[in-house]
Amino acid sequence: MALKYSRQRQVIKDFLMTRKDHPTADVVYMNVRHEYPNISLGTVYRNLSLLADLGEIKRLRVGDGVDHFDADTSDHYHFVCTECGSVIDLMSDGLERITETVEAANTGFDGEIIGHVTYFYGVCGDCRKKTLS
Amino acid sequence: MALKYSRQRQVIKDFLMTRKDHPTADVVYMNVRHEYPNISLGTVYRNLSLLADLGEIKRLRVGDGVDHFDADTSDHYHFVCTECGSVIDLMSDGLERITETVEAANTGFDGEIIGHVTYFYGVCGDCRKKTLS
DNA sequence: TCAAAAACAGTAATGATTACTATTTCTGAA
DNA sequence: TTCAGAAATAGTAATCATTACTGTTTTTGA
């Protein structure tokens, strides 16, 4: 009896699937409380980590010191706005060979490269517009 | 009178330049204390941040929740061992066009991509050897 | 030499995350 | 259906990296 059903975990995952903006644990907590008023913040953290370990969601670390979560587990990259901190999906493919490229170039490296983490940063469309005022 | 000389800052930078293993603030603190016994941890943090802002060193965020620092400011990538956490330089070039590739592929994206962060992960040579025992 | 700005040491505060504990909820077998 | 043990929870305390604060010391240009 390894994993048991829990209503809280279901609600957390359901909420995450409605969002495409990669919320943090705290944002998940705030929102899930609306329909599950006495859920605990610890429960949100535990289940987000569990879901990430199960591969049902992805944990994003984009350098702002806070973990973001993404229910879209397909291979894609993210853009982080340095002004407002928003995390946006990038559509680009053509980067799926990054790891292979590095492995080929590092013939002297004796470790085993399993994968890579990449995110892009800059100014998002909304913040660019605000700068013009 | 914007920036003043400080012995502590010099010692911190000198120490960092002797290392190629990307130490954390705490490791810098522990080592610098040997020759500067009553330096403060806050001073180490403040100066590492200042040096990073000045572009004299680089701050590395490799997803382990702790900032690492690198006195080598040349463009290069890093490998993080998932077993022991060590951070190792990768020699590979051929990746300097990552950002351009993404920009070209994201014609619909209205933000401005300034740069990217990439690090590789896997098992380092030392940890691979240990696994064989 | 000297005064203002900058930096410091030491300590307190912050903020995200994890750990702990007594209670509640699941679930498979009787 | 009942029930016991495992898993999960709510609530709270603890952890850990980092930043903020404050009175003192250093640096530096006039």
Please give the count of helices of chain A. Answer: 5
Helix content of chain A: 25-40%
Instruction: Catalogue the unreliable spans of chain A.
Output: none
**Count of structural domains of chain A:** 2
The greatest interface between two protein chains, and residues involved on each side, is:
A-B, 39 and 39 residues
Q: Encode the helix/strand succession of chain A as letters.
A: HHHEEEEHEH
The CATH topology of the largest domain in chain A is: Arc Repressor Mutant, subunit A
CA-to-CA gap between the ends of chain A? Answer: 59 Å
Radius of gyration of chain A: 18 Å
Shape field of chain A: flat
CATH class categorisation of the largest domain in chain A: Mainly Alpha
Please tally the β strands of chain A and state the result. 5
Mean pLDDT of chain A: 94
User: In percent terms, what proportion of residues of chain A is strand?
Assistant: 15-25%
Secondary structure class of chain A reads alpha+beta
CATH architecture of the largest domain in chain A: Orthogonal Bundle
